[in-house]
Design goal:
Blueprint (H helix, E strand, L loop, with lengths): L1 E2 L5 H8 L5 E4 L4 H11 L6 E4 L16 E6 L11 H12 E8 L13 H9 L18 H8 L2
Parallel strand pairs: 1-2, 1-4, 2-3, 4-5
Length: 153
C-alpha cells in the first residue's frame, strides 16, 4: 500500500520490485495522474489506484483486508505538514499485517535555534502600523505590543 500516492511513483517502484498487488491510495485529484502513469508503464494490472482518504477505505477496497508493506513519503515540513504522518499511522492501524513492514519506519527531526536580526526586524516592521498615534485622527498604539506578541507567538 502506497499512502498518499500522489503521482504513484512509489507504487510503480513497488511493482517494479515484484509486488504482486499494490494499492495506491490518494485522496486528491492527483489519483488520475497516478492512473495515467501506471497505465503508461504497463502496471495497471498490478496497481489499483484508490481515490479516497485512508480513513474511508474498507475491505471492499482492500479485499485481502491487510497488506504486507506500507510505503509513503509522509514527511513534509517538520514531519507534520499536510498531516500525512497521522494518515500514515492510521494506515498502519487499519491495514498493516502484524508482521508487516513500513517504509519509512522512523524519522528523526533535528532542530537548532538561531537568531537573525534581519528577519527579526522585518517581522517587527510588519507591526509598525499599530504604532500610529494619528491614523485618521485615531491612536492605534495601544495595540502595538499585542500585535508584536501575536506576530511572534
Amino acid at each position: 500500500m502506497d499512502v498518499g500516492a500522489g503521482s504513484g511513483i512509489l507504487s510503480l517502484f513497488a511493482a517494479q520490485a515484484g509486488a504482486k498487488k499494490v494499492y495506491a491510495v490518494e485522496a486528491s485529484k492527483s489519483a488520475e495522474n497516478a492512473r495515467k502513469l501506471i497505465k503508461a508503464n504497463g502496471f495497471d494490472s498490478v496497481i489499483t489506484v484508490l481515490e479516497a482518504r485512508i480513513e474511508d477505505l474498507t475491505t471492499q477496497h482492500i479485499p485481502e483486508g491487510k497488506v504486507d508493506v506500507i510505503v509513503s513519503e509522509p514527511l513534509g515540513t517538520f514531519l507534520l505538514n499536510e498531516r500525512m504522518l497521522e494518515t500514515y499511522v492510521i494506515a498502519r492501524q487499519l491495514f498493516l499485517k502484524p508482521e508487516g513492514r513500513m517504509f519509512p519506519a522512523r524519522a528523526d527531526l533535528c532542530i537548532m535555534p538561531f537568531s537573525d536580526l534581519d528577519i527579526f526586524n522585518e517581522q517587527m516592521s510588519k507591526c509598525d502600523f499599530w504604532r500610529s498615534k494619528d491614523f485618521h485622527g485615531l491612536d492605534l498604539s495601544d495595540l502595538y505590543w499585542q500585535a508584536v506578541s501575536e506576530k511572534f507567538a
